[in-house]
Amino acid sequence: MIAELGHYALVLALGLALVQAVVPLIGARNRDPALISVARPVALAQFVFVVLAFAALAACYVRSDFSVANVFENSHTAMPLVYKFTSVWGNHEGSMLLWVLILSLFGALVALFGNNLPSTLQAHVLAVQSWIAAAFYLFILVTSNPFLRLADAPFEGRDLNPILQDFGLAIHPPLLYLGYVGCSISFSFAVAALLEGRIDAAWARWVRPWTLAAWMSLTVGIAMGSYWAYYELGWGGWGFWDPVENASFMPWLATTALLHSAVVMEKRDALKVWTVLLAILAFSLSLMGTFLVRSGVLTSVHTFASDPTRGVFILAILVLFIGGSLALYAWRAPLLKQGGLFAPISREGALVFNNLFLTTACATVFVGTLYPLALEALTGEKISVGAPFFNATFGPLFVPLLAAVPFGPLLAWKRGDLLGAAQRLLAAMAVALIAMAATFAFEGPRPVLAPFGLGLALYVMVGAVTDIVERTMLFRAPLGVALRRGAGLPRSTWGTAFAHFGLGVALLGIVGETQWGSERIASLKPGDKVAIRRYDLTFEGTVPRAGPNYRELAARFTVRRGGEVIGVMEPAKRTFATRSMTTTEAALMRRGFSQLYLSLGDQSADGSIAVRLYHKPLVLLIWLGAVVMFVGGGLSLSDRRLRVGAPKPAKAKAALQPAE
Amino acid sequence: MTRKQRRLALLGAGLGVLGVAAALILSALKDSIVFFNSPTDIVDKHIAPGTRIRLGGLVSPGSLERGDNLAIRFQVTDGNKAVNVAYQGILPDLFREGQGVVAEGALDGAGVFKADNVLAKHDESYMPKEVADALKKQGHWKDDYDKKTGAAAQGKAR
Questions:
Q1: Percent of chain A whose predicted confidence (pLDDT) is above 90
Q2: Strands B52-59 and B33-37, how do they pair?
Q3: A494-521: per-residue pLDDT in tens?
C-alpha cells in the first residue's frame, strides 16, 4: 500500500508540475496577478508530494518490503538500518527520486523566500523550475519507476552492492545532487531573465546566493566522493580524471566561474550576457553529468549498474533543455542591455581573467571526456583519454589562473594598480621562492614538478592571507585595531580569503601526494616485514571475523617507526555472501596530514598474502582544502549584503536560504 | 580605450586563450590517447610492440597463473583470438576467470601484453562497455564461432 501511495504522490507531483509550468507563465504574459499567484502554493504542494513519494520508498526500504522490486534488488534484512535507508538512493531509480526531491525542495525554497522578487520574475523562475521537474517526474514514472511490485514477494533481498555499503553513500550523492540541482535555480533565473528580456544588478544579487549554495555543495560533494573512492576502492586513488569524476568536476568549474562573474554583474552591472550564458552552461553541464553517469555511455571505474535504454530519454531531456535554453539565449540575449565599462587591469578584469581560464579549462575537460564518445560514434574506433591528456591540457591552463588568484582581491574596481598589488604580494612570492629553493636543495631536481607545485600552492595560500592582512592593517597597526578591523570586514571578504586559501591547501595536498607519494607491493607471510619511507610494517597474521551481512579476513600489521611501535593497521577482505562479492577494506593511519594506506590483495595457497602499501604525504590536505573552500562559501553566504534585499537595510529574518 | 576597442581586446584575449587551449588539446590528443583493442584487433592489426593500448575481453577460464613476487599471467579472449597478458601486482577484487576485464599496457617483442594497469569495476554484473561491444562484434563477424559462449557473453553484456 505504501509503495502505491508513493507512486500516486509522484503522479500528483507531475500534475502539479505541469500546472506550475504553464499557469504562471500565462499570468506573467497577461499581467494577471491571480494566475501568477498560483506558482507559489503549487511549488510548495509539489514539494510536499515528492517528500511523500520519497518517504514512501524510504519506508519500503526500512521495513524491507521485498514485494517492491527496487527494494528486493538493493536491500537485505541483515543490513544495518543506516544502509537500508541510504540504499534508497544507492540505485538508479531511487537516486533519480532523490534528484527530484532536491529539485522540488529548491523550487519550494524559491517560493518561500522569494518574496522580494518581482512577481513576474518569480513566476517565470518557478515555471522554468517546473519544466525541469516535470521532465524528470515523467522520466521516473515512465522509465525508472521505483515503486513497481513483484508478483511474488521474495523472502530475502539481493543486497546492496557492497561497495555502496558505506557511510560515504549517506553523504556523497545527496551533496553532489544538491550541487547539481542547485545549478537549476541559477538556470531558471537565467531563462526567466531571457523570457522577460530584462536583467539588472539585482538579478545577480538574487542568483548569487543560490549559486554559492550549489557551489558549496558541489565542492564538498566532490571532495567526499573522492575520499570515499580513495579509502573504499583499495588502490589509493583520490581522482584520476575518470569520465564520471569529470562529469561532476565540469559543473564545479562552471559554477566557480559563474560565482565570479555574478560578482562583477552585481557590483558593476557588467558581463550580464556572459553571466546568463554561464548560468545556462553550469546547469547544462550538471544535466550532462547526470546523463553521463546514469546512461552508462561512458566507461568508468565508478559506474554502477546502468541501463542504456534510459539514456535515450535522458538524452531527449538534455537536448530539450540545453538546446532550448541556448536557442532562447541566442534569440533573446541581444535584448539585454550592455553593462558598464572597466579597464583591463581592475577587479573586473581579474574576474574576467578568472572566467576566461576557468571556462577554457572546463572546455578542455569537456573535450577530453566526450572525444572518445564522438570518435566512436563517427569512426567506431575506441579510445580512452586518460590522465596524461588532462594533465597536459588542464594543467597549463590552470597554472596562470592560480598565479592570478591572489591578485584579484588586491585590485580595485574599475581601475586597479597591478604593480601595487604585486608589491603587496612580495611576501607571498618570497615564501614561494624560498620553499622552491629549499625543496630543490633538499630533494634535488627530481621530481621536477614538485618544487614548482609546492611554491605555487604556498603562494596561493599566503596570497589569500595577504588580502586580509592588508585590510586589517595587521603588523602595521596595534593588534587591537587589526582585530577590530578584521571583525568589521564584510563576511564575503573573509569568504574570498578562505576559499582562495582552501584552493592553495588542496593544491598543496595534490602536490604532496602526487610528487612525494610512494608505493610498495609485496607478498608477505606472517612475520614478514615491509618498509616504506621511515615506517616498518610487520605482518602478524590473519584474523577471521563476521559482520552483520559479511565475513571478513583481517590482516594484522604492527607499524613501527624507528623501531618504536606506533600502532596497528588491520586491512581486511570482506566477502558478501548474497552477491558473492569481495571488497577490500583498506586500513589508514594518519600521521599529521599524511597517511599510511594499506590494502590487501589475494591470499595464495602457501598462506602468503599480497599487500599494497602507500605512503601518502599531505594527502588529507586535498579534502581539507575543499572543506576550507566550503567554509569560505558559507562565510560569503552569511554576508549581510546577500542575506537582505539590498539596498534596504537589514530586516533580520531567520531565513535558511537567502533569496530575496 | 573606447568601448569597441575594449571589447575587441577582450575578444582577442579570449580567442588567444582558446587558441592555446586548442593547441594543447590537439597535441595531447596526438600523444596521450590510448586505443582500445580486442584480442582479434591485436592479432589482425599487427600493433607495434611498445605502443600503449587497452586490451579488453574475457579472462579465459583456467588461464590464470600466479608466479613469484605477485607475477600474474592470464589470457584474454574475445572468443576468436586470445592474447597472453603478464601483470605484476594486485588484481582488482572483481577479477575472475570468465569475466570481462580491461588491461592497459603494451605488447612486448614476444607478443605478450605487459599490463601495468588492470581496471577494476564496482559491480559484479557490470561488463565494460568496450568488452561487450567487442564480444558482440566477434559474435556477428564469425558464424562458426562457438554459439554458446557467444550467447553467454552477450547475455552478460546486457
A1: 55
A2: parallel
A3: 999 999 999 999 999 999 998 888 999 8
Would the pLDDT of B46 be above 90? no
A-chain CB neighbours of B126 within 8 Å are 303-306
**Beta-carbon pairs below 8 A across chains A and B:** 131
Distances (CA, A) of B19 to A351, A388, B13: 20, 20, 10
User: Is B89's Cβ below 8 Å from some Cβ in A?
Assistant: yes
The closest CB to that of B54, out of A163, A364, A384, belongs to: A384
Nearest CB to A304 within list B3, B35, B122: B122
Cell of A152: 511474488
Please answer whether residues A413 and A342 qualify as being in contact, where contact means their C-beta atoms are separated by less than 8 angstroms.
yes
pLDDT at B151: 29
Pick from B24, B97, B102 the residue to mutate for testing the A interface (most A CBs within 10 Å): B24
pLDDT at B111 over 60: yes
Q: DSSP readout, A521-545?
A: EEEE-TT-EEEETTEEEEEEEEEEE
User: Does the beta-carbon distance from A523 to B69 stay under 8 Å?
Assistant: yes
Contact residues on chain A for B123, CB-CB shorter than 8 A: 161, 163, 303-305
Distance CA A387, CA B32 (A): 8
Instruction: State the Cα angle at A566 between A565 and A569, rounded to 5°.
Output: 100
Say which of A305, A392, A397 has its CB closest to residue B125: A305
pLDDT in tens, A51-103: 999 999 999 999 999 999 999 988 999 889 999 999 999 888 898 999 999 99
Please indicate if any CB of chain B lies within 8 Å of the CB of A268: no
DSSP assignments along A123-176, one per residue: HHHHHHHHHHHHHHHHHHHHH--TTPBPSS--SS-----GGG-SHHHHHHHHHH
| Band of residue B138 on the pLDDT scale cut at 50, 70, 90 | low
pLDDT at res. A58: 96
B91:A602 CB<8 A: yes
Residue of A nearest to B134 (CA): A382
Q: Which of B20, B33, B102 sits opposite A383 (nearest CB)?
A: B33
Residue segments in chain A with a per-residue pLDDT below the cut of 50? 305, 644-660
pTM of the model: 0.90
Closest-CA distance of chain B to residue A317, Å = 23
User: Which distant-in-sequence residues (6+ apart) come within 8 Å of A248 by Cβ?
Assistant: A176, A179, A180, A218, A221, A222, A225, A289
